[in-house]
Amino acid sequence: MIIFMLVAVFRFCAGDPCNWTGSWLNPGEDPRIILQVRLRCSEGSVRWLHPGHAIRVVLEPNLSSTRHTTVCIKPSPSLSGASVFVERFGKLHPLATDEGKSQQVTCYHEYGPELPAIYIQTGPQRERPWSRQRLGFKYELLGNRSSDLQHLPTSCQPCDDVRLLSAICSSDFVVRGHIQGVTHHTGRQASQVEVSAVRVYWQRGGVFEARGPHWRGRIHTHLQCQVKPGGGVFLFMGSEHFGEAWLGCAPRFKDFLLLYRRAKAAQENSCDFPLD
Predict the structure, then answer these.
(1) How do beta strands 33-39 and 190-203 pair?
(2) d(CA 209, CA 216)
(3) Among 45, 143, 211, 236, which residue's CB has the most CB atoms within a 10 Å radius?
(4) Whole-angstrom Cα distance, residue 182 to residue 220?
């Protein structure tokens, strides 16, 4: 645990409320100066060109209705070698270091009224040629969706009826299709499911792309879930983070239809779903 002390501050107001790109152009500046950046979106990116001593990024999106916020950081490969901290209650807690896997997504819970802040320190200039590099990361802040985050520990248990009916209303993507193959990546501790979709009901991003009569896309899940290829038609639902789709529920489509029709007859469905 490191005590957070600002010796000198240079404040910067970003024109883009979601993304920031800036540089440290004067190597003769006081090395104690910490560059300040404030961003106001729930997701975006930071690119620091010709980095100097340190930068502090404060995230203050419009999540006033949510008390608990989950912050996820995906560092760029070039961030390896820098020290990354999360600032909480005036103190810095390590998030990634030289010895850590700085390219993996890391999530943490932020409680209380304090704004989430990320602090990056480059170290002495003589140890790294920072003037020839760029540092950065992507970020996502989640409130009500934080319980569905794929990067947080999950049990890999099949979705029950209540969760299935809720997932079709709240998922970032809902697609119907077949499993073409499954690839396991031990380094990422994740599995990648190749999906050929006959219908994309909706998606938040562009993970699934039209290729001929079908849509193609990749869905990720935890390696510990031990996903295996299977025949039949599935209804894939889940969340999208940092441009990737992560699996939430995947019932067989015929089983889902029985559940949905039964819930609709009993007026227990949370939202309308197209059955054609």
Answers:
(1) unpaired
(2) 5
(3) 236
(4) 10
- Long-range contact pairs involving 185-190 (C-beta distance under 8 Å, separation at least 24): 185/223, 186/223, 188/104, 188/223, 189/222, 189/223, 189/224, 190/220, 190/221, 190/222, 190/223
Contact 45, 134 (CB under 8 A): no
Write the pLDDT tens digit of every residue in 208-267.
998 888 899 999 888 888 888 888 999 999 988 888 888 989 999 999 999 999 999 999
Q: 234 forms bridges with which residues in the sheet? A: 177, 252
Indicate if the pLDDT at residue 66 is higher than 70.
Answer: no
As a whole number of angstroms, the distance between CA 105 and CA 240 comes to: 13
Cα gap 59→117, rounded to integer Å: 6
Residue 216 one-letter amino acid: R
DSSP summary character for residue 62 = S
Nearest to 257 by CA among 232, 238, 239, 235: 235
Residue 54 CA to residue 58 CA, distance in Å, equals 13
**Cα torsion 215, 221, 223, 228: sign:** negative
Least confident window among 14-23, 161-170, 263-272: 14-23
Which tokens go with 161? 């009826």
